[in-house]
Amino acid sequence: MLSNLNCLKSNDSIIRIALMEILSKDHEGDPDTKIIPELGLKHGETRVDIAVVNGVIHGYELKSDLDTLIRLPNQMRIYNSVLDQVTLVVSKDHLHEAIKLIPDWWGIIVAKMVGSTGNIKFCHIRKPEENHFKDSLSIAKLLWREEALSILEKLNKANGVRSKSRQIIYERLAANLNQEILGNEVRKCLKTRVNWRPVI
User: Fold this and answer.
1) Residue 116 confidence (pLDDT)
2) Could you tell me if residue 59 is inside a domain?
3) Is 47 helix (H, G, I), strand (E, B) or coil?
């Protein structure tokens, strides 16, 4: 049997279910918002736990009592290159260490276990701010090859790259769109995808 102490420890699944429920209610009936669990960044180099896509891409990274912060610095590097906003959802045990690691513009939510029921209470510590450190090539890599090529076709910039690798296509796209317009195009693709198996 688990000890009472272990029963009070949060895990990724408990936090994820509770947060998904809140986010779903917050955006219920909003056709311009899509909530994407486990959104892959830089072709699967890492995944952000939950992404809310509407006018921005807001990533939520979860760190429960049973997690460690070992992977957080590498995750930060990638999130900072791609996401418009980031919120760390962290257990109280990891809060002080996490604050020392993450940028000031990241939001912070503390996830606390309530009693022994397994319920999660979220305490908002800091709101996320706009990310000024994004990289256009990293943003373009959120697209599948055919999505990126389709955008280039609309711009009449696809000549010479139609049969090239996706890396070259992304480079062409990043070079021909300013970051704001590129972000708009990427979000539009993410929100309208039906089949989430990528076409390479």
Assistant:
1) 67
2) yes
3) strand
Of 69, 104, 126, at which residue does a domain stop?
126
My answer on whether 17 and 109 are in the same domain is yes
**Contact 60/89 with Cβ under 8 angstroms?**
yes
Q: How many other β-carbons are positioned within 10 Å of the β-carbon of residue 99?
A: 15
Q: Looking at 67-164, which runs of residues are DSSP E strands?
A: 85-91, 107-114, 119-126
Structure tokens at 94: 């990891």
Share of residues in the chain with pLDDT > 70 (%):
93
Judgement on whether residues 88 and 183 belong to the same structural domain of the protein: no
What's the distance, CA 31 to chain centroid? Answer: 19
Digit-coded pLDDT (tens) for 49-90 = 999 999 999 999 999 999 999 999 999 999 999 999 999 999
The burial of 116, by beta-carbon neighbours within 10 Å (0-12 exposed, 13-18 middle, 19 or more buried), is given as: exposed
pLDDT tens readout for residues 95-110: 999 999 999 999 999 9
Q: How far apart are CA 181 and CA 81, in angstroms?
A: 16
pTM confidence score = 0.91
